[in-house]
Design goal:
4 helices; about 100 residues
């Protein structure tokens, strides 16, 4: 049984993808092939949107994530160059 299932599952998956690609998400057409149409996503309520915004803001603060304008304001510290030795003196190499 496992051998038969292992060979038919990829074929059925490809057939499903072909039918959805060819006919779209039209319920009557998909039902003719025995395929259930994809469920439509329900829109969020005002309370859910507000809760998501609060969670998003807290996550950004916890992870120190900045937006494009905030990142543009951050400047890297200037690279410091080592001071050159005075002319006429030999550099010491720890001896």
């Amino acid at each position: 049984m496992k051998d038969g299932k292992a060979t038919i599952v990829p074929v059925l998956g490809a057939f499903h993808a072909f039918v959805v690609n060819r006919f779209g998400n039209a319920p009557p057409t998909l039902e003719d092939f025995g395929i259930a149409p994809r469920k439509v996503r329900t829109p969020l309520t005002a309370e859910q949107k507000a809760a998501a915004a609060v969670t998003r803001k807290a996550t950004r603060q916890a992870r120190h994530i900045a937006g494009k304008k905030q990142r543009a304001k951050i400047k890297a510290p200037a690279a410091t160059t080592p001071a050159a030795p005075a002319p006429g003196t030999a550099p010491s190499h720890g001896t």
